[in-house]
Amino acid sequence: MFKQLKTEYLGWIFLIGIILLISELVFFDGGLIYSLALATGCLYIGRKLSPRSVGKILYLIGIVSSVVIVLNMMIFKFFVFAIFVYILLVYFQSKKNPEWVKPYLMEPEQKKEQIESEPLLKKEYLFENKLMGHQKTTDDVYEWNNINIQRGIGDTIIDLSHTILPKGEVVISIQSFVGNLQVLVPYDTEVRIHHSVIAGRAVIFQKQETKVYNQILSYQTAEFEAADQRIHLITSVVVGDIEVKRV
């Protein structure tokens, strides 16, 4: 049923949701920002101290607080209402204009042509989009695949010494809300880094930025343009540190 939802409808729902979220944060309930920041802080600190009882308690408080805040937000109620209205519309539309399915038989030659027209190979990703939790590359040798992920809360560690990078430029793109990023780079590989951060620290080879606030950092090694193997690292984080070093 939801496959019938047109892209423009989703776009309008998303746009209205963003407007409601901004209105709720700015005009109606300024304290909501502090509540969200407090809940996020409890989640992050609780994750860091998770082996201890204090960490588990803080993490639990963060989860409960986040759920309560989201359930009471106007944008959540709007999306529930939008889904309910859409289900009703689809139901009445299906009653008015029922869909007829007509079987279509293909000739053997047509089947063969369709199958052989464009073969596709599915590839596995090293990471996945994850709302909470840490992720790191395996300690064993793995096959390389470009990385493009979005993270919520948690640390990310990428060790490039356990894979064979292809010739040319490989791309690592990471967007994270709260958490630290660490990228371990082989000595014989050139690197370009574009890092955007609201609050955190940056250690990029010998360059150290102990306090970074609302900045974009951009560096590249001297032989990057002429190198056969190049790593283009694009990262953005709201709160967290980045470390890029040789191994």
Automatic annotation (TrEMBL):
The GO cellular component terms are: membrane
Q: What positions does the domain Cell wall-active antibiotics response LiaF-like C-terminal occupy?
A: 132-244
A Pfam family matched by this chain, by name?
LiaF-like_C
Q: Which residues cross the membrane?
A: 12-45, 57-89
This protein's UniProt keywords: Membrane, Transmembrane, Transmembrane helix
Keyword NADP attributed = no
Quote the InterPro entries the UniProt record gives: Cell_wall_LiaF, LiaF-like_C, LiaF_C
Protein's recorded name: Cell wall-active antibiotics response protein
Cite the source lineage: Bacteria, Bacillati, Bacillota, Bacilli, Bacillales
